[in-house]
Amino acid sequence: MHTKVIELDKRIRVGAVSYLNTKPLIFGVKRSGLMNRIDLIEDYPAKIAAMLLNDEIDVGLIPVAVIPQLKQHFIVTDYCIGAEGEVASVALFSEVPMEKIEKVVLDYQSKTSVNLAKILLKDYWKKKVVFEDAKEDFLQHISGTSAAVVIGDRALQLTSHSTYVYDLALAWKSLTGLPFVFAAWVANKPLNEDFLDAFNRANAYGIKHIEEVLAETSFADYDLKKYFTKNISYELTDQKRAALQKFISMLLVL
After folding, report:
1. For the chain, counts of helices (H) and of strands (E)
2. Per-residue pLDDT reduced to its tens digit, 108-139
3. Which DSSP category does 11 fall into?
4. Where are the beta strands (DSSP E) in the chain?
């Protein structure tokens, strides 16, 4: 069955994650002529994923764990939110070492990170724990033998205050030898090639102008230059695509 490409004159609904790590990608988009052609919505990852699933947006920077739930999907652009090693903003935080953790509270904001934590606890740390879905005040419950998976800006804030920090991207690299992809630009329908080319170039612009991104971004709890250039790896390389497929295959048997 032929799938109709979205009409050229229709505004394309784009959903982006409202975390610090997306700022380099969005920087170029907001400075391109694309803002006349798109409606840009920013929210936390799970919300953007739900909007793509419900066809409330046409393309979104979504947690990759959601991909199997889409009727059809198209990974667009050469960019993603990935990590070659320590990511810093996705971790398991605890007051006790891994062997003493009994319960893990799961951040409600991203399906990829919580599923990655489940895979790592099972296959890497070989640890059985009780999982609990987080409420909004869940950071206050990291105490005793209760740990939590925390992502995004909140994780960067916790890094220097938590007794034990288990970086999930680093653990994945130790387990598989591969980098990790937390989020990718995914469309739920074919999009016009001219738009996709312009959108890809807009993403690239911010990655090439990190100093400008830093100049208009303030965050006291973590070195953002290190975060944007060392922790987050934005290019969707062949190795990252292989890692993405491996993660999804592990996810389906979790």
Report:
1. 9, 11
2. 777 899 999 999 999 999 999 999 988 777 77
3. P
4. 12-17, 38-43, 59-63, 74-83, 90-94, 103-106, 130-133, 146-151, 164-167, 180-187, 233-235
CA distance 88 to 227: 8
Domain 12-83+179-252: state its class: alpha beta
Q: What is the pLDDT of residues 7-51, one digit of tens each?
A: 555 899 999 988 999 999 999 999 998 999 999 999 988 899 999
Helix (H, G, I), strand (E, B) or coil at 67: helix
Task: Provide the whole-model pTM.
Answer: 0.93
In 99-145, the DSSP E strands lie at: 103-106, 130-133
CB 147 within 8 A of CB 11: no
- CATH for 90-176 is 3.40.190.10
**Residues 191 and 12 sit within 8 Å (Cβ to Cβ):** yes
Those residues whose C-beta lies under 8 Å from the C-beta of residue 208, and which sit 6 or more positions away, are none
What's the chain's average pLDDT?
A: 93
Place of tokens 């489940």: 118
Residue intervals of the chain classified under CATH 3.40.190.10 are 12-83+179-252, 90-176
Task: Provide the residue count of the chain.
Answer: 254
